[in-house]
Amino acid sequence: MVTRRHALAAGIASASVGVTGASLVPLLTARGAEAAAAEAPAAAAAAIELFKVPLPLIPVARPLSTAGGVDTYEVTTQRSTAEIVPGVRTDVLTYDGRFPGATIKARTNRPVVVIQRNGLDVPISRHLHGASVPEDSDGGPMDTIEPGGVRVYRYPNRQPHASLWYHDHAHHVESENVYRGLHGSYLISDPVEDALPLPKGAYDVLIELRDANIDASGQLVYAMGDRTRNTLLANGVPYPYLEVAARKYRFRFANTSNMRFFELRLADGGELIQIGSDGGLLPRPNPTPSVYLSSGERADVVIDFSRYPVGTQLVLVNTGGRGPVEQVGQVLRFDVTRTADDPSSVPSVLRALPPLPAPTATRSVVMRMDEDGSATAQAYLDEKVYDHARVDQVVRYGASEVWTVTNANVKAAHNFHMHLVQFRVLERNGQAPPASESGLKDTVVLQPGETVKLQATFDSYRGAYVYHCHMLDHSAMGMMATMKIR
Questions:
Q1: CATH code for the domain of 35
Q2: How far apart are the C-alpha atoms of 436 and 426, rounded to whole Å?
Q3: Nearest 5°: phi and psi at 174?
Q4: Which of 5, 71, 118, 478 is the most exposed place for a label (fewest CB within 10 A)?
Q5: Please, are residues 51 and 11 in contact by the beta-carbon 8 Å criterion?
Q6: What pTM value is reported for the model?
Q7: pLDDT digits over 340-398, tens only?
């Protein structure tokens, strides 16, 4: 029987036609140290060949009603199966039977209502990551829907365009629930974005990236802190191919992994143009050889395939994170199959962000987790494990604050996510942030020993909201805290 390792190695060899990732740089770098849990023995795994299945396009959800200028959706979480490994049905958790969940397309200042039913036997909490929403619709970790229950979430969408995503957030079970499939995308558009000549329609493609540990029977294996999740999925399938025309495309990459970080590159070293991050478009395009995404981060990237002749096969490679290069070093393949007209372009200016107000307060947050690999390891913010009954920070409504966030670990990477607000990165390790962090953010990576300074303005809603490491295995271990805006 062909082993998974042999199948992947064979896939790399067969992909050498055209432009491939045959010369990948080593992955095990400090930048890829995204977890500190002990390495678990790898289970016998399914045989998966590279680039044998097409990239599925995630369906767009259809509202139940649009009455009164409000788009209303009804969604049920349920157990189902999905064909992740070709020819095999895998048990998953889903929104309405879809893996990943359907994409909701919203407009700025047009409200969305989601009637969420829980058809599972575990509690859930639907969180719209990156959204400014009232406290009762935030989907906080303790604000859960019990099995058989229903909850109405109201999203005013009083924020600019952004590529957001939704996922379960029920504390202690969020890590496994998201891993098994409770995640999807939520795209807000507005006139500012519409007016730009960026690639649109069929040339604007959402790609959700994540990893999984799949056993020999094709089932998802879950363990807290598992560092053997070495099968990469794009839109729910492993190592797909996408047929493209020789023109520009906009790709909305979302890292929906529990813990894995990606560093995305084209195998030939070709230019990527990053145009957006978590909170929408950057002020200016960022030409770059790579895009780095920690868990929960998003990036919009334009790739111009007109520089490649028809017949080119171009691999999107991953040079970040940990794991065997033949398993985690290649993500998907672009097959240039035709020519096409291309009226799109990338303007030199994408948007104007308002100047930051003068800070009204400063705070510091220290992230740390136990690095001994023990089964009882915990994770902390300011040396405290999450307690839902405790308020850790009191923020004045309307305040604009500078938070200095430090990763105190020497092995483990973390990232920092705030509910309710999009923030601006002011400094990274005392220096100006890179161009990739020049826009609005809701999640920011911190490698071991790093410090990031950010500014957030709390002028939308009052209430209790959490901030936490968005490596969900870490937040489930306690790396989460509560801020009260009042």
A1: 2.60.40.420
A2: 12
A3: -60, -35
A4: 5
A5: yes
A6: 0.93
A7: 999 999 999 999 999 999 999 999 999 999 998 888 999 999 999 999 999 999 999 99
